[in-house]
Amino acid sequence: MKTFRDLLRVALTGLYARKVRTLLLLLGPMIGVAAIIAAVGLTDSAKGDLKEKVNKLGTNLIGVAASSSFGSKDPTLPQDVIARSQSVYTVTSVAEIRELSNIIVTPYKEAKDKYEAVPIPVVASDIQLPSVLKVQLISGRWLNEFDDQVVSRSAVIGIGLARQFSYLPGEVRTIELNGIRYGVVGILSEVELEPSFDNAVFIGFPSAKADFVDTKDDRILSNKLYVRSKEGSEKVTADALRVAINLGGPNQVTTDIKSEALQLAAQSDQQIKLIVVSMGILASIVGGVGIANVMSISVIQRSAEIGIRRALGHTRSIIASQFLLEALFIGLLGGICGVMLGILSIFIGATIAGWVFVLAPWLIPAGIALAMVISVVAGLYPSVRAARLEPLETLRLG
Amino acid sequence: MTVVDEVTRVGVEPLLELDTVSRVYGTGEAAVYALRDVSLRIMPGDFVSIVGPSGSGKSTMLGLLGCLDIPTSGRIIVGGKTVTGLDDAERTEVRGRTIGFVFQQFHLIPHLDATGNVETALLYRGLSRAERRLRAMSALNQVGLGRRHDHRPVQLSGGEQQRVALARALVTEPKILLADEPTGALDSQNAENVMELLTNLQSPERAVVIVTHATEVADAAYRKVSMRDGRIVNDVTRVR
């Protein structure tokens, strides 16, 4: 332990005493590591906003829709679809909706001519939908159990529709669905994974049944589900859901993983990343060669010092360790400086380009480790050479 | 073997002994005998000068005496222990424990101050830094450089640098002090100072061995070993 402390002190003193040389040695691993970190960071940051969105929305939202192989109109999901989907154990939450057709939505009766041309989707939804979609309400509230119990004519509108209708948050307003007045109780925020919801009107299942769907059933059947699965198991879950919901029945079920497209878009350009990282590794290796070079010269320059140390009783292994430790410190310092320089470049690059700063945390230890490995490997040959020097030759006895 | 008037004191173990040692450089027809069957005993209390013209084998002798080199044949015994069969690490250990070196070119480490240079000899011996400093300071005081302990080699004169080197050789309390042309790079005044120090460093337990071609330096020693063509041609001890 004391020997190691002595070694450490000698190595550090040696590096400190030759500041310019140390600085030059640092440059190699530093530039290499900085290049790698900047490359990975900048290619990630370029898609940083999308990555952030993926992280926020989660990658585990699955849409389940009823479809008919026989071309029947308005295919629906089975009555007990919620229970069936919850039998898949990777499912964490479910919400169901029914897209209603042929409903004319107008902000008020007089505007009928203006808005009839643009169809506005009306969706019957259960009370779980915002929590499954992870969407907030901009103002007001979502449909609740009370609305369903008393079959109130309450509606929540999407943010796009609110803008279109010049709806002010908190304003007491009604909209007309096929001429029936519904009170607007809330505005749903942007739904990134289901953009059509931004212009939709949401009402409860009971009021939809009462006002728009003619059916003998207790309630109207849903035709779409939104399912959250355990993170990472979305593909398995989607496959299982198709089976669990269909159960051999006549109606087909299709699934789609909502975040797939977004995730794909958020993926960094792997080829560019690979090229720049390779260049960074190349720079590190060149830096390593530089270290080997400068240290070899240094061994020649310091041969008298090595000789006298040997004469004073320092063993070959002590001499080798001393040089290796110097290389290790150069790697450590170069790595730290390189990481800092890399982070700075990402920050500057991202700021100029208006990207979201993204840095994978593992890059920091990995960068420092890479610099240290390269430095030590580069320092190996000079260290062995230093240890092999014969004191008698280096001291040039007269 | 030409060993003339060898001093042998009964009951006293030699500090260092060369036993029919030869050192050959190169092989076959190109072989050069730097030393040929040399035997020499360095006793405690010896103050020896090894003299001879260049090419006489002085430097080879110094390398062998300092365990910096191994002979082609023959034995070297340090403190009763044969070192010729030892590996490099073991020889290094023996060297660090028993021998102190002073060189013509001082060989101080330029980026360390006087204390640092002296301390270098005490590294890797399990001593605390404070202990090393203390001993280094005391060695520097011994050579009269206590006040300049924080000067780096460039800030010191040649004579002072050689005294730092002397302190570095002393600090490990070696049994044998090996000096290679210790005054070779100094002016006469400084040379005199250094010789005086070396003379004072000789003690009943310690031997001082000086390799030189300067006669005034050689004459300061009590025992004079003369060499020529790789052999000892004369070994004279004068009465103190």
Order of helices and strands of chain A: HHHEHEEHEHEHEHEEEHEHEHHHHHH
Low-confidence stretches of chain B: 1-7
Going across the biggest sheet of chain B, name each strand in turn: 6-7-8-3-9-10
Largest sheet of chain A: 11 strands, mixed
Counting structural domains of chain A, the number is 2
Radius of gyration of chain A using CA atoms only: 34 Å
Give the end-to-end Cα distance of chain A, rounded to a whole number of Å.
Answer: 38 Å
Q: What is the helical fraction of chain A, as a range of percent? A: 40-55%
- Biggest sheet statistics of chain B: 6 strands, mixed
Would you list the SSEs of chain B in sequence order as H and E? EEEHEEHEHHHEHEHEE
Distance between the termini of chain B: 27 Å
Contiguous helical run count of chain A: 16
Radius of gyration of chain B: 18 Å
Average pLDDT level of chain A: 86
**Outline of chain A, from the CA principal axes?**
elongated
Give the largest chain-chain interface (CB within 8 Å).
Answer: A-B, 31 and 36 residues
Low confidence ranges of chain A:
none
Count of structural domains of chain B: 1
Q: Care to count the β-strands of chain A?
A: 11
Please give a structural write-up.
- Chain A has helices spanning 2-17, 19-46, 48-57, 81-86, 112-116, 129-133, 145-150, 159-164, 205-211, 234-246, 260-266, 270-301, 303-311, 316-353, 363-388, 391-394, and strands at residues 61-67, 91-100, 105-106, 122-125, 137-140, 154-158, 174-177, 180-188, 201-204, 224-229, 252-257.
- Chain A is of the alpha+beta class.
- Chain A folds into two domains: 2-47 and 268-394, no CATH class; 58-265, no CATH class.
- In chain A, strands 1, 2, 3, 4, 5, 6, 7, 8, 9, 10 and 11 form an eleven-stranded mixed β-sheet that branches.
- In chain A, helix 1 crosses helix 14, helix 2 (19-46) runs antiparallel to helix 15 (363-388) and helix 14 (316-353) packs antiparallel against helix 15.
- With 240 residues, chain B is of the alpha/beta class.
- Chain B has one domain: P-loop containing nucleotide triphosphate hydrolases (Rossmann fold, 3-Layer(aba) Sandwich).
- Helices cover 30% and strands 26% of the residues of chain B.
- Chain B is built from seven helices and ten strands.
- Chain B has helices spanning 58-65, 88-98, 114-120, 129-142, 158-170, 188-201, 215-220, and strands at residues 16-25, 32-42, 47-51, 73-78, 81-82, 99-102, 176-180, 207-212, 223-228, 231-237.
- In chain B, a hairpin with a 2-residue loop joins strand 9 (223-228) and strand 10 (231-237).
- In chain B, helix 3 (114-120) packs across helix 4 (129-142).
- The radius of gyration of chain B is 18 Å and the shape is globular.
- The chains are: A alpha+beta (398), B alpha/beta (240).
- The interface between A and B is medium-sized, with 31 and 36 residues.
